[in-house]
Amino acid sequence: MTLVRPGKEQPPDTVQFRIPLEMTKCDVKNYLEKIYNVPVGPVRTRIQYGTNKKRNHLNQRVKRPDYKVAYVQLAQQQTFLFPNVFPKKDVAHEPGSMDEIQDKFLEDERQRQKPDPRRGGITDWFGF
Amino acid sequence: MSFINMAATSAGRVAVLCRNFQKGLTLCNTTCSNQNNFFHRTQLRFFHPRVSASNFFPSLVEQCRALHSSHSRRGLEEFFDDPKNWGEQHVKSGAPWSAKQLRTKSNEDLHKLWYVLLKENNMLLTLEQESKRQAVPMPSPERLKKVERSMKRLDSVVNERTEALRLLQTGVKNERPGEWRRNCLGQAIWYKFKEHPIPWYMNRRYKKKQFFALPFVNFFTQLNLEKHLRIRNRKRRAEKEEKLKLQKFSKATA
């Protein structure tokens, strides 16, 4: 069972899951209540068809697997907001390490790409 | 171990992968049992025939309930990793559980470990999907393989135990009855019995099936045998050559 970020905007009490095709609404409800101790209200499911249209380098059709999506509403007026699991962190690398050398190199490259500050923001194709 | 629900703690999450934390679990167990003994002793000391202990001191069951600090009420947070690990490039994880280690554990422990592994698996799958969505590399994807292997080994250990128990109790090796039969191609197959509402001699579709091979099939069984022998000999020769090669190079270096 995978908790996914909803593609379309969902009400605040709705959580979206990807579940195996063989699972039913009752199964989802019992699963969440017993294993995760989450109060569950109504559950709605649908089956998402995975495309068989894409072709690989041998021109064979490659099937993307089908999966079932469950929209679970939480009981007891609870809300759920999908968190940002990849926040940007300022990492200070230790001096002399490979990562620090790489970062310095990228910083130098970026500096080289910037235009001459003495020109006052004018583009290159004006004469002189 | 039985009265503490280790399934949902952070200690449980670490126990998923790191076998070194088995010691941590046993320590926690011993400390809790010590506290239990302490309460028991105090109860006995202050017990008076006239006054019932339950008025002054809660019963042992209620004390045990008070000690249930490890029961987590986190709910949907368990689909995500520790917030400290969000945004990291690499997340440290220990070795997967081996079958040898799992065989030393009791059935209750294995039952709890299964659910710990299941929750860990769900968490990793959500992380994988989110990383695909955000077009960001998933931190330490080898964790998925480790969890999958641990679960497979746990399943095999549990199956071994059930098979042994079944052999001792009934003398039958497999759950579903079956037998070795020769199909129409001359191959020996394990035929699994199905449940039918009517006997086999009244089953028309079953009677059409041939569980014998006619004489013209013998030629093809011979060919199959030759193919099997060829593969087997090829494998053996390859192993021998590999061994000789290793010996030759070890002699050269030595």
Descriptive overview:
- The complex is a heterodimer of chains A (128) and B (254).
- By secondary structure, chain A is α+β, with helices and mostly antiparallel strands.
- Chain A has two helices and four strands.
- Chain A has helices at 25-35, 98-113, and strands spanning 2-4, 14-19, 40-48, 67-74.
- Chain A is elongated, with a radius of gyration of 25 Å.
- The mean pLDDT of chain A is 92.
- By secondary structure, chain B is mainly alpha-helical.
- Chain B has nine helices and two strands, in the order αααααααββαα.
- Chain B has helices at 10-17, 22-45, 53-56, 60-66, 99-103, 107-134, 142-170, 204-208, 218-253, and strands spanning 178-182, 188-192.
- Chain B has a two-stranded antiparallel ribbon with strand order 1-2.
- In chain B, a hairpin with a 5-residue loop joins strand 1 (178-182) and strand 2 (188-192).
- In chain B, helix 6 (107-134) packs antiparallel against helix 7 (142-170).
- Chain B is extended, with a radius of gyration of 29 Å.
- Chain B starts with 9 loop residues before the first helix and ends with a helix.
- The A-B interface holds A 1-5, 15, 18, 35-38, 80, 83-89, 91 and B 73, 75-76, 78-81, 86-89, 115, 118-119, 122, 125-131, 133-134, 136.
